[in-house]
Predict the structure of Type II secretion system protein K.
Amino acid sequence: MTPGVRAPQRQRGAALLLAMLTVALVATLSAAALWQQWRALAVESAERQRVQASWILAGALDWARLILREDGINNNQRPADHLGEPWALPLAEARLSSFLAADRDQSADSTLEAFLSGEIFDLQGRLNLRNLVKETDGKQVVSEVDSLAFARLFQQLGLPEAELARVEQNLLAASAAQTTGTPAPGVPLLPQRWSQVGWLGLSLRSAMALAPHATWLPQRTPLNLNTATAEALHAALPDADMALARNLVEQRKSAHFTSRENLRQRFPAVSAAVLQSEHFDTQSRFFEVHGRLRLDDTLIEEVSLIERRPGGPTSIELTPLWRERRAATVPPPTGHSASLQ
C-alpha cells in the first residue's frame, strides 16, 4: 500500500478521536450544568424550609407568650401557678400545611407537609442549681439549706456527692469573679442554661439524671409547691419522706395549693420551713417553651426561656431570655399529643 493511501486513513482516525473528545467534553459540561442547577434548587429549597421553620416556630413562641400573659393576668385574682392551668396542657401535633405559602408553579400535592406541637414547663418546679450560692454581707457563700436539698437529691438518684462539692466550689468561684469583675485563671464562666452546667464540673450522666428535677436559672428562685416533682419536694422539704412528697403531688391534682399556709393546713406534718418565701412559693416567673416542627422528614425543635413579670394591675411583661434551636431525632406520633421533654 502506498504512502499516499495511508495519510487519509490517519486523518480520518484523528477526526474520529477529536469528535469523541468533543462529545465527552460536551457531556461533561452538560452534567456539570445539570448538577449546578440541581444544587441551586436544593439550596433554594433548604433556604425556603429554613424560613418557613423560623416563622412557624416563632408562632409557637407567640402562642406560649399569649397563654402565659393571660395566665399572669388571672393570677392577679388567683395568685397560684399549677398544673391544671391552660399553659400546662401540651399542644397536640397539628397540621399546618394549608397555611404555608406555596409558589404559583407548585401544585397542592407538592406543598410541604408541616406539623407543629409544643409544651410549656415551669422551671420553678425544679431545684435551681443557682441557689447553691447566695450573697451574705457582700460575699458569695454556699447556701446550706440548698446544699442539703441537692445532697438529698443526689442521694435519691445515686449520684456521687463529690460532684456536688465540686459544683459548689466552682460556682462559688465563678459567682465571686462575676461580682468583683476580675476573672481568675481556671475559674469557669457562669452557665446561661442547663446544657452548660458541665462548665461547673457536673458530668453528663449526672446532668441527664438531674434534668427532670433540677434546672439553671439566672437568679435565685423559690420552688413552686404546685409544679415540683415528688423527688424535688422530697429533697427540698427537710422533714418530708418520699411517701409524703408523693402524697402532696397526688393531692394537689384535685385541689392545688393556693399558698404556703394552705399547704400547712392540709398537711400539718410538713414543717414550718414551707413558710419561708425564700425557698418555697406557689407562683412562678420562669417558663421553658418547647416547640417542635416536622417538615416532611425533617424534625426541628426550638427551646426558649421566658421570664414573666407583672407590669401593672392588668399588664404582664414577658421577656425571652434565650432561644436555642436544635435538630430533633425522634418524631412525635402523628395525630397524638407530642411530649417535648
